[in-house]
Prior knowledge:
By secondary structure, the protein is an alpha/beta fold.
Amino acid sequence: MEFTAALRKQIAQLAKAKCRRELGLFVAEGTKCVTDTLPHFRCRYLLATDAWLKSHGDILPPSVEAIGVRQSDIERMSSLSTPQQVMAVYEIPEDIPLPDDAENGLLVALDRVQDPGNLGTIIRLCDWFGVRHILCARETADVYSPKVVQATMGAISRVRLHYCDLASELERLAGSMPVYGTFLDGTNLYDSGIDRSRGVIVMGNEGRGISPEVEAALSHRLLIPSYPPDEATSESLNVAMATAIMLAEFRRSLPAAPVRN
């Protein structure tokens, strides 16, 4: 396929949410992000410099036709402060409902988390701790924005986000599994005696926390304690940091996965 100025302009416009929705496309950049996502999304275009294709062209699937471009072209299309030598344009997959078997394990729910870096990091954390589905309030940041995709470091391939009316979905799930949220007046996470094998961990907005509508669906209020408890400390934790602590504690008591030979 021939690289044209029109194609370059179209790809550059995918930095905007409106254009991503209209075209049904999103961008991944950099060798690791592209190679991790290629097997999992339908690739519309793969654009790379000659130097990158010479070094990595043999790892591309036969179905993917690479388009050779100059580094200056990538810089004009890229959303990164330091553009890489390769970028892929993928078709946004169709929305799917939460699988029934997901209710047998651990889920994360995000109530209007809006910082792309936080969302990307949370997706990466879920990938690390084996959480395959994230419920998101519709006001949550767009998973297919370039900053989110980049921050996931390829984890977007293995973790699926479901945008929904979060309060209603949690109310439905609360009938069959525990729903946890973090609050300054909650029960100490480490002394709570909760069932850590299954449930929904709800994380709130960076500035406003968990909304009253979502809070009404919770069955457990938990506190991540500061140490020592009687000394002044930061007002709150970054939402991605708090998610890491919650996931680590929930997974801590489970049997370790067998080592693969």
